[in-house]
Amino acid sequence: MRIAERGFSLLEMLLAMAIGAVLMLSVGRFLPLLLAQNLQLQQRVQLQQELQQIAGTLEKALRRAGYCHGQCAGPALTLVAGGSCVLLRWDENSNGRWEGVGHSESDLYGYRLRSGQLEMQRGVDECNSSGWERLTDPAFLVIDSFSVERSHTRLQLQLAGHVGTQDVALVRWIEGLNL
Fold first, then answer.
1. What residues contact residue 22 under an 8 Å CB cut-off, 6+ apart?
2. Could you confirm whether the keyword Nucleus appears in this record (predicted)?
3. Out of 37, 41, 80, 139, which could bridge 85 as a Cys pair, Cβ 3.0 to 4.6 Å?
């Protein structure tokens, strides 16, 4: 006994191809949307990571503010321009004093927001000087706001930035043990 082998008919093949074409067109319409959403998500994650890294650097500096292994004179923390410029002092080499401006091992540090970028400088005691270094890449990230507010020994760090259409804001509370 032989079983008759039979393939698809022309009509069945045309119908299958039509259904496949409709499916491919519908998938093709959603692919650019899916790719755009993927790009936005990647930008948001990268922005979040960048801001968290910057906030971690600032948090570490703010925790150090006021440390002195002896008798240090002067303010440990100065907030200028509504907290968008922060001047700090800590005894980095534990020699019992805060080295001033112009010293090769100065214990004065500054962080400021300028033109959408966060900047840092060592050996500075005012916010309007030149020579500050950017902590952020202007080709990728714009910092919208940076501020530090003080309540006794507690500090509130606020940092917000954007990349394209993605916005992220961070708030961190820091205990300044040496303030």
1. none
2. no
3. 80
For residue 109, give Cα distances in angstroms to 6, 82, 93: 84, 18, 14
Label residues 149-159 b or e (16+ Cβ within 10 Å = b). ebeeeebebbb
CA atoms of 140 and 89, how far apart (whole Å): 30
d(CA 64, CA 77): 10
Q: What is the pTM of this model?
A: 0.80
Angle at the Cα of 38 from the Cα atoms of 47 and 142, rounded to 5 degrees: 25
- 121-152 tens-digit pLDDT: 999 999 999 999 999 998 989 999 999 999 99
- What amino acid occupies position 87? L
**Planar angle of CA 43, 47, 50, nearest 5 degrees:** 140
